[in-house]
Fold this sequence. Notes:
Pfam families: MORN. By secondary structure, the protein is mainly β.
Amino acid sequence: xxxxxxxxxxQRHGFGKALLPNGDTYEGEYECGLRNGPGTYRFKNGxxxxxxxxxxxxxxxxxxxxxDGSKYAGDWVHDQRQGYGEYLYANGDIYTGEWANNxxxxxxxxxxxxxxxxxxGCWVNGIQDGPAELIHQxxxxxxxxxxxxxxGRGKFIFDIGCEQHGEYIQPMQEKEEREEEDEEELxxxxxxxxxxxxxxxxxxxxxxxx
Length: 210
């Protein structure tokens, strides 16, 4: 069902309201039959998008409210979260920063609601990867991350005014004798281990320097 403006060819053009066959509704601007410009799209499942469209796709600035209570406000390109935006997750965590192909990608800050800790740094395809700082209540860690875990040289900076330098090392897993039927099991990736080297006064070292 459609109620609104049309052009001389009878296409939806201008402002209109539509009820789609799947139960979704759209209210906003059309151009030559396609959603184009500002509009509000309500999904039958309770989700809602309000923002800009380009040829039926979310494109430009827009806010999406998801059925689980989470929310994204920011840039869109061809229906994907892309550019800069803020995502409030259902558990209360917040990510603010760059996006590409619907994933956290580039520079961004992720705040963990439960602990108040925050990760400030690089992301690759949704995973913490590259130079970053992990800030906790009384101290912070400055170093590099790989696949979501700290790895390599870094330092812990304590609010009392000192630093502990060292590195995160990826431990190798001891290979056990396995029964033949267990051959397919992948080795478990062990948590990186912190090896401290020295404690100093505050220094200007940064993972970006390397």
